[in-house]
Design goal:
This protein is α+β, with helices and mostly antiparallel strands. The protein has six helices and eleven strands. It starts with a helix and ends in a 9-residue tail after the last strand.
Length: 227
């Protein structure tokens, strides 16, 4: 019995030390089960966007998009000052002298960033446009409807390859807040644009599980596909 207790004690000490090492050295790369990292992973699983108005504020304060992502990774989630309601989640994340709010609109694949010290009055932008500053590292996360209309649109645009669309979103992606409908149920509609061969291509997209589903392309040259 004494041998068993001794072994159990050593196991407990080893487990505790291992847990400390994981938390201290790996921080956000480990311990995804902690409340703070669950929030951060939920944000990182989405397209992180910054409205043009917020981008101006960030530029005035000399804050780069890279610093925004670093703050997300290294900062602390203040749950007491966050909004955790189902339809309007917004989390305050603080890192040194930088305070940011990241939203998680219901059933949406975006997380919008605000330069703010609290979540009061924070709502998803409904006017203007924004830049996509980060997208999950998954070239297969985009897929298009298999309808004849969408297939025709892809062929006309030369965008048959959905991984190509993914990389265009990553490089030139923008969101049109005004044309998007975050209140639509069961799924919000997002209007995302990319630059391709000197043209601005719009796409209506919804979030299906962990994928970005394109239900329509928008360009003046696609009218014959709608017949």
């Amino acid at each position: 019995m004494e041998t068993f207790v001794r072994r159990l004690k050593f196991y407990g000490i080893g487990f505790g030390l291992g847990l400390v090492f994981v938390i201290f050295f790996f921080q956000n790369r480990g311990c995804s089960w902690t409340p703070s990292n669950r929030v951060k992973n939920a944000v990182l699983d989405r397209l992180i966007v910054i409205s043009d108005s917020t981008a101006i504020l960030l530029k005035e304060k000399g804050i780069s998009y890279k610093e925004v992502i670093q703050a997300l990774n290294d900062g602390d989630v203040d749950f007491g000052k966050s909004n955790k309601t189902k339809n309007g989640k917004a989390y305050l994340i603080e890192r040194k002298d930088l305070s940011l709010v990241f939203t998680l609109p219901y059933e949406s694949f975006i997380s919008e960033v605000f330069l703010a010290k609290n979540v009061k009055g924070i709502k998803t932008t409904t006017q203007g446009e924004g830049t996509i500053i980060k997208i999950p590292n998954d070239k297969d996360m985009v897929f298009a409807d298999s309808s004849s209309v969408v297939s025709c649109q892809q062929e006309k645009l030369g965008l048959i390859s959905t991984p190509k669309i993914y990389y265009k979103i990553k490089a030139t992606g923008r969101i049109d807040f005004e044309k998007s409908d975050f209140a639509l149920r069961p799924k919000p509609e997002h209007h995302i644009t990319i630059e391709y061969k000197g043209k601005t291509i719009g796409m209506t997209m919804i979030w299906y599980k962990t994928k970005l589903n394109i239900s329509n392309f928008h360009h003046f040259s696609l009218e014959e596909c709608d017949i």
